[in-house]
Amino acid sequence: MTKLGVIADDFTGATDIASFMVNAGWKVVLFNGVPSEAFDAQDTDAIVIALKSRSIPVNEAVELSLSASAWLQAQGCQRQLFKYCSTFDSTAQGNIGPVTDALMKFLNTPATLVCPAVPDNGRTIVHGHLFVKGELLNESGMEHHPVTPMKHSSLKKLMEAQSVGLCGMINLDKVKNHPDELAREIETQLANKARYFIFDVLDNQDLLTVARVTAHFPLVTGAAGLGYAIAALDEHRALSGKQAMHIDARGASVVLSGSCSAMTNQQVDFYQQRASSLALDVEKIIQDPAYLEFVSQWVIAHASDHLAPMVYATQPPQIIELIQKHYGAEYISDRIETFFSSLAKSLTRAGFNKFIVAGGETSGAVTQGLNIEGMVIGEPVAPGVPWTQVLNKQQWVILKSGNFGSQDFFQKAQEHYHE
Ligand SMILES: Nc1ncnc2c1ncn2[C@@H]1O[C@H](COP(=O)(O)OP(=O)(O)OP(=O)(O)O)[C@@H](O)[C@H]1O
Ligand SMILES: O=C(O)[C@@H](O)C(=O)CO
């Protein structure tokens, strides 16, 4: 029986929590948006729905999240987790507070947990303040975020500004030294009208304590660490989880890199010294209708190389700046994404069954090109970046966030293939 339904407010956040739960031994399936049909979830521990609701208008975020919650409930997920960013990305209008309130009403619960802590990634909570690698959230760089600048670190302040109720705070001393008293503490604070419980969390042990004491809450909210703790506490997880995903070495693979982050630039530099590589010509993407076929044929010609061929648009920031000035940033981004989407589609027709993709937006475009509705989450190549198998297909995909993974990521991903 499925144990947990997860509603994630963005795509890389969805793969992040899915990967943490798989690491704890669960079998996890991820859907891109709310599926239109039912899913037979019998041997699945968690279903994750990836939405794009972090920064859209509040009423749309609420509506989308409620429809995800209703679908998950219909698949048997009585318990649900609302996944938002571990840096609590939101404004005083939302969307974390309003979505949480709406889900609480829908799932008919007077209390929930607010827990963005991910100790493995340096997200900790002390005296109710959120830290990012030892820095207060509002001094971590997040105060400059273009869409959701985080101007406070107090989770109480942040949550109460965008929701209808009060926070209940439980400090580190209680979590670490008096775990047996936590259940009573929750009852006392509930009687005092607390709705959103914020526990201090410094390490994974604290997360396990928090997950244990809130195991009866029908709804919890937070980030990937909470997913890990809930899965790790499940005594039956070994029955269904930790099966290595069989990624079939037969069939060809390709690396598609559209990310221009510092880390991806390093990964592309490293990989192009070892494998056949083709840098995309931006002018030809725009001007030459035969270019897609030319690039497809180049990839196909290298299909049986020892390492997968790589096609990349990745460039360092100073070159990107020039290209964007010349063509317009939005226009050129869109053209490159569409090119990757069409290339992926054309390579599938040519027998390619493994796609290693770099970049959040690029991943969205490739997912669309491959017409992916859902995927099973496999083993991670780097923290938060798992191999995935497309539902009901012999097709495998990695979607790498810009700054994730080590220098040898593209090569490392291919070490997971099996004969
Ligand atoms: N040479 C280029 N010139 C201009 N734009 C480019 C070039 N190469 C890639 N792009 C665009 O840059 C954007 C990169 O965004 P993407 O989300 O894929 O990567 P990222 O921002 O590094 O990843 P993440 O969002 O996961 O951190 C895409 O829209 C892509 O089309
Ligand atoms: O929680 C995080 O930090 C990430 O999963 C995320 O939400 C990326 O957008």
How is this structure best described in words?
Its EC number is 2.7.1.217. It is an enzyme of class 2 (transferase). Residues 254-410 form the Four-carbon acid sugar kinase nucleotide binding domain. This protein is globular. The chain contains 16 helices and 20 strands. The two termini are 32 Å apart. The chain has 2 domains: 4-240, Rossmann fold (3-Layer(aba) Sandwich); 247-418, 3-Layer(aba) Sandwich (Molybdenum Cofactor Biosythetic Enzyme, Chain A). It has 419 residues and is of the alpha/beta class. It has helices at 11-23, 58-74, 96-106, 155-161, 172-177, 182-191, 204-213, 224-232, 237-240, 262-272, 282-287, 291-301, 317-327, 329-349, 360-369, 409-414; strands at 4-8, 28-32, 46-50, 80-83, 112-115, 123-126, 129-132, 135-136, 166-170, 194-199, 219-222, 247-248, 252-257, 277-279, 310-312, 352-358, 374-382, 385-390, 396-400, 417-418. The chain is 39% helix and 22% strand. The strands form 3 sheets. The protein has a 15-stranded mixed β-sheet with strand order 9-10-5-11-4-1-3-2-17-18-19-16-13-15-14, with helices on both faces. Helix 7 crosses helix 8 (224-232). Ligand LCNOYBR7 binds next to helix 1.
Key phrases:
Molybdenum Cofactor Biosythetic Enzyme, Chain A, Rossmann fold, 419 residues, 39% helix, binds adenosine-5'-triphosphate
What small-molecule ligands were found?
A: adenosine-5'-triphosphate, the ligand O=C(O)[C@@H](O)C(=O)CO
> Mind describing the biggest β-sheet?
15 strands, mixed
Pairing-aware structural class of the strands and helices?
alpha/beta
- What fold name stands as the CATH topology of the largest domain? Rossmann fold
Average pLDDT reading: 93
CATH class of the largest domain: Alpha Beta
The count of domains is 2
CATH superfamily of the largest domain, by name, is Putative sugar-binding, N-terminal domain
Which regions are unreliable across 5 or more consecutive residues at pLDDT < 50? none
Rg from alpha-carbon coordinates: 22 Å
Adjacency order of strands in the biggest sheet: 9-10-5-11-4-1-3-2-17-18-19-16-13-15-14
Number of helices: 16
Helix content: 25-40%
CATH architecture of the largest domain: 3-Layer(aba) Sandwich
| Total DSSP E strands | 20
What percent strand? 15-25%
